[in-house]
Amino acid sequence: MIYLKPIGGLCNRLRTIDSLISICKNTGQDLTVLWVLDESLNCSFEELFNIPEIKEFKFVILDCPVGFPESFLKSYGKKSDGSFIYNSHELEFVRSLKNVLKQRYLSKLQKSVISQIRNLDYEHVVVNEQLSVLYNSQNINNSVRELDENFLKIVEKKFIDLVGDYYISSCYRVYPIVNNYTYFKPVPDLIEKVHKKKNSFKNTFGLHIRRSDNTISKDFSTTDLFVHKINEILKNEKDALFFLSTDDEKTKIELEFKFKNKIITNPVSNYDRNHPDAIKDAVLDLYCLSNTKKIFGSHHSSFSQTAADIGGIEEETVR
Q1: What is the pTM of this model?
Q2: What is the pLDDT of residues 256-267, one digit of tens each?
Q3: Same domain for 51 and 16
């Protein structure tokens, strides 16, 4: 059994899960995904996607509280001599009291998972902090696709032949893309909205402009550069339209004002990823982007890359 905790926002989680599905198909390992509801993504998997139907191994999605499993463990594994070992400095009863006060109660299945992770050999524990050291050692000027390709050259051998039980936490792709995310099918309500929107796409390009907390995206992929790209396309293709996905209302208003009926968007329920509606909006935008003819995306944003991979289309980082 592999216990996987995908970390971060929507696409960081999807690419990690997609990686492990490919790995488990090769190894025959069962996969339990620990889907933590936190401020980065506070919406259950089943509100967004149908549970993937996989014949080769058992696949389970388990919704988990904030801090799972770290807040319920003193350390990872049965050894404590690893460079990246998680080892809580709080007394066990203090951690337990905090969990009670924050109403972090575990089900019987969640307690069983904690027990299994606690008893793993440390060599069978791979934590995101460990992977981040490798990933972030690269050149900041590289695109997400370039970063991923370089990262995979380093870690693929470690993950390709997993044997035995493992606990893995990751926000990265750890295995080359194989199925273009075909195992992820949005729930009927969301897919119906995608189909309705894509029916209005005629010679439509995708724009993903990341703002909010992503400083690198804001610094490298400025709004002025996107405006220049739109004008450049319109010089050659006057009938071009642009589907815009952004996490910033100001940017949306600015582009709609500049280009009026050339900009297509979805209604936004909420920009706060701690709200389930914001995550549903993100899934809708992701799959709408995947149905455009080409995506112009933001630097260091896995959202742009994932949308392109889902649709099997070209993605160009604006920088």
Answers
A1: 0.88
A2: 999 988 999 998
A3: yes
